[in-house]
Amino acid sequence: MCGIFGCVLREGKAAPLLHEALKRLEYRGYDSVGEATVYNNKIYVKKDAGKIEEVHAIENLDDLPGSVGIGHTRWATHGGPSKVNAHPHLDCTGKIAIVHNGIIENFMELKDELIDEGHVFVSKTDSEVIAHLIEKEVKSGLPFVEAVRNALKRLEGSYAIAVLYAEQPDMIICARKESPLVLGIKEDACFCASDIPAFLHLTRKSVVLENGEIAILRSDGYELRRISDGAEVHREPEWIDWTPEMAEKQGYPHYMLKEIHEQPQAMRNAVRLQEQYLDLMATFLDRAQEVFLVAAGTSYHACLAASYMFSKLAMRTVHPVIASEFIEEYGKALNIDTTILFVSQSGETADTLEALEYARNRASTLLGLTNVIGSTLTRVARAYICQQSGPEIGVAATKTFTSQLLVLAQLALRLAKKRGKVSQSEIDYLEEEIRKMPSYAEEVIARVEDKVRELAQKYYKKNLFLFLGRGISSATALEGRLKLMEISYKPSLAFPAGESKHGPISVVEEGVPVIFICPRDETRKEIKGNIMEMKARGATIILIIEEGDEELKSLADDYIEVVKGVPEILSPAIYVIPLQLFAYYVAVLNGLDPDKPRNLAKSVTVK
Ligand code: M6R
User: Taking the model in full, what pTM does it have?
Assistant: First the structure.
């Protein structure tokens, strides 16, 4: 998730506006920053790795000439944070400059094709292909707008782009597919941005660019067209009456709620992994004598769920371990034949890094799954995957958890393929289901949010909650408990439902809410038994069930129905969504700020 901005002014300098707008978009990424302007038919660029003000202190971003420009603040996905990988990217002639937010899935094929045709690439990014593709189309004689449109048709993946062309210095072309892009409209200026706060101080008139649309911005107005056939589109600007604070959170009252709603898009990014990284990781996991998954907090819950995925799909035992316990529990047993996948959203959690360092000294193979390229984990791991969720600001991990689950599921499936443990038809089915996960998440959020809010209203004063699940859903239960506990401070318990009778059931008395996570899976008979045990002790039964599960509904005091047909190994990423929302609304109803829970930090860098 990067931030892009473009402005076309009738008069005045674009650069200071770009600078200010990028500061307002810095929450979307801050690995590197860059700006390009056009003046006297020449493109001028300044860019470097680092935060905006750090780069500005050295480069003076404000002295670029001209009234038309584009800018970018980066959250690295392809290619580490560095000056060459910073946007804008240029074509071979230096006349075309682009900024991009999104992921181009087929960039390797396109890059090979363009290199064969003589194009010279300077960065490791997926984005640079866009500049060269446009250059190729321009060279074929097409007018510039058509050249951009044709180039876009070749891209697979997601994008929001803004393009400058030295030969047409009075305009910017921008376009989007999946990644967000909004236009800001003024009498004497037009802007495009990843998000409204970038231009809210300049204008409150805005047009949302829809998927598959391209816009031509000039200082006196804008034109919209469809990318597919170039047909004109008419859309009038809307008036935005958000306060600056609301705008930063895109109208949501808290980052946590915004990030819960961002899950479908984050999942889309998580299913766009480069094949060769998945393959490399699967090869390491296949060869290892022993595999550990090591993480803390929510990331540990993703590892726990993954241990079921690996054993069920790839028939490979992997040991999920809490990072702070890893050295004590397994340290002495580590050796060159051990492979460890460290999972950490931030890539900087002290407990996880300590385990990493220890394992490095024992010559084990270190792998990483993280959201932050350039973090310590990515620097130390032999191979890593970036989950590509964009920055998560709320202390409670939400979108990064569901994306971790999707990456781990793809890894387990890849390993299963490698080891010949699943049939082709099952692989095809699961790959298709993985692709459907963003839409499932979208549907669930839309369907359950009101009902969850009502339940939160009913239960927010309760002082004890239990979360139970069986099989892979025991990880979902733990995560639901952690969400509620960390932001609403409600004492809560979670454990595999089968464990209840070995002790925890003694805390249950009349009216204690017990939340069961019940996808339709092989544990159904047993989970029904566990529900009955709790009911018999007066617990209030709240079930998270598949849509239309009448049998379980009849056992519940309250229930939330999610979508039908989610495969068991993918179910945590869907069934956790109502639990995230429940935690959020309970915290808010208790007058707490879910974004800043007491005693906690987003990145726990102390042991
Ligand atoms: O950045 P990491 O994934 O390594 O962070 C691990 C935990 O600190 C983190 O998941 C924490 O538990 C969250 N606050 C949970 O919402």
Answer: 0.82
